[in-house]
Specification:
By secondary structure, the chain is an alpha+beta fold. The protein is 36% helix and 21% strand. A four-stranded mixed sheet has the order 1-2-3-4, sandwiched between helices. A hairpin with a 2-residue loop joins β2 and β3.
């Protein structure tokens, strides 16, 4: 499956949940995750890779820095992995 298809599935899932699924660009650096997910009382960062895809050193470092700040910041290769990485977040309803 292509990364664009996984990204589309994630965006649709977030939309159905009423969450923002933003594609942000860090003009001052490299490695910012593909999608920023924002919902009631939470934010998460997701790097999307096709199965077997490689995470660059810049991406690894950026994800680690976001985790150190207390955010969920994960690499996913499917919509199922995306849903799983959000399981432990206490998501409140609006």
């Amino acid at each position: 499956m292509r990364e664009s298809a996984i990204e589309r599935d994630i965006a649709r899932y977030c939309d159905a949940q009423g969450w923002l699924c933003l594609k942000l660009v860090d003009k001052g650096g490299r490695g910012f995750p593909d999608r920023t997910i924002i919902g009631p009382s939470f934010a998460a960062f997701v790097e999307i890779k096709k199965p077997g895809g490689r995470v660059s050193l810049h991406q690894q470092r950026r994800l680690a820095s976001l985790r150190e700040l207390g955010f969920v910041a994960e690499v996913v290769t499917s919509i199922e992995e995306f849903k799983q990485c959000l399981v432990h977040i206490p998501i409140s309803k609006p």
